[in-house]
Design a protein that fits this description.
The chain has helices at residues 51-60, 78-85, 100-107, 109-112, 178-181, 191-201, 220-230, and strands spanning 19-24, 45-46, 49-50, 70-74, 90-93, 116-121, 125-127, 149-155, 168-176, 205-209, 213-215, 236-237, 242-243, 247-252, 257-258, 261-267, 272-273, 278-285, 289-292. It is α/β, with parallel strands linked by helices and 301 residues long.
Length: 301
């Protein structure tokens, strides 16, 4: 694969190590229910773009753009993911319950086949001012020797939230050598236990700092925050939406009809907001489902 400086050899990083990419999209998104009763978390839209498409665009910009170089796993509501990917990536469908981040990578072992693997969570929202998706995480690959484990890490500002690794919070992407992938069992497990912590204990873990905005979109509050960040502090309205009501800091999807008032809201494609409704800190799906996205500490207004 590629680093940004080696577009002619898109399957190798600048150090000459062959790499592929895996986007993890199998999870249930339990904390986002009832939103994820309608769509798998990976297909929930942020800034009117499904999270999975954002992840695929990011790795595509790094050279992972075909089923030979990028794979996507699916499980929960997996038929929707399979239809959505539609040949853009190698698909790994997990039967039953999701295998977790480690098991999902292990199930793709035969496809990975000796390569290093850039693993990204489909639900990771990242944005670095002045740097487009792809180059914003390219430092993970630059100069990699194929032996260490690398994690993208966001600095933690203060003591309120301790870092996952030193002073850094994991920011959605990691780079794994084949030596740590080849023996992973294809059973439910997480990379933090099977790869990251063992590498850390062995002195083989490197954290590559990401100074932009990172949200895991795992809760309604973080999902709303990602949407509002994508809207750059204003409103983002799909051209096919019909909006006659007032709106402040809102994201409105394709085909939505908004007659009421929106204040810090997301309206999914096809959603409806009646003239008598004033939604605040909320996500609207269809005509009647409203999910509160107010942070737990926020006052009720």
């Amino acid at each position: 694969m590629t680093g940004p400086t080696t577009a002619a050899t898109p399957d190798r990083d600048p150090g000459g190590v062959e790499v592929c990419a895996v986007v993890l999209a199998a999870g249930e998104g339990r904390r986002l229910r009832p939103l994820t009763g309608h769509l798998p978390k990976a297909l929930c839209p942020v800034g009117n773009v499904p999270l999975l498409d954002r992840a695929l665009a990011r790795v595509s910009a790094l050279g992972f753009a075909t089923p030979a170089t990028v794979a996507v796993n699916a499980c929960y509501l997996g038929d929707q993911v399979v239809r959505h990917v539609a040949g853009r990536a190698r698909l790994s469908v997990e039967p039953g319950s999701p295998l977790g981040t480690s098991g999902g990578v292990a199930k793709l072992r035969d496809w990975i086949d000796g390569r290093g693997v850039l693993v990204g969570n489909a639900d990771a929202y990242l944005a670095a001012p002045g740097t487009p998706p792809g180059p914003d995480v390219a430092a993970l690959l630059d100069g990699w020797d194929g032996t260490s484990v690398r994690l993208l890490g966001q600095p933690v500002a203060g003591p309120a939230r301790p870092g996952d690794f030193g002073r850094h919070r994991f920011a959605g992407f990691s780079l794994l050598p084949w030596a740590r992938v080849r023996d992973l069992p294809a059973e439910p497990a997480e990379l933090v236990r099977t790869v990251w912590r063992p590498a850390e204990a062995a002195g083989a873990l490197e954290v590559v700092e990401f100074s932009g905005r990172y949200l895991d979109t795992g809760t309604p509050a973080d999902y709303l925050a990602a949407n509002l960040h994508a809207a750059c502090g204003g409103s983002l309205v799909d051209p096919t939406a019909e909006v006659t009501g007032a709106h402040r800091m809102a994201v409105v999807g394709a085909g939505a009809v908004v007659r009421g008032t929106l204040d810090r809201c997301v309206v999914w494609p096809g959603g409806r907001v009646r003239p008598d409704e004033h939604l605040t800190d909320a996500i609207r799906v269809g005509e009647a489902l409203t999910v509160s996205a107010r942070p737990p500490s926020a006052p009720v207004r």
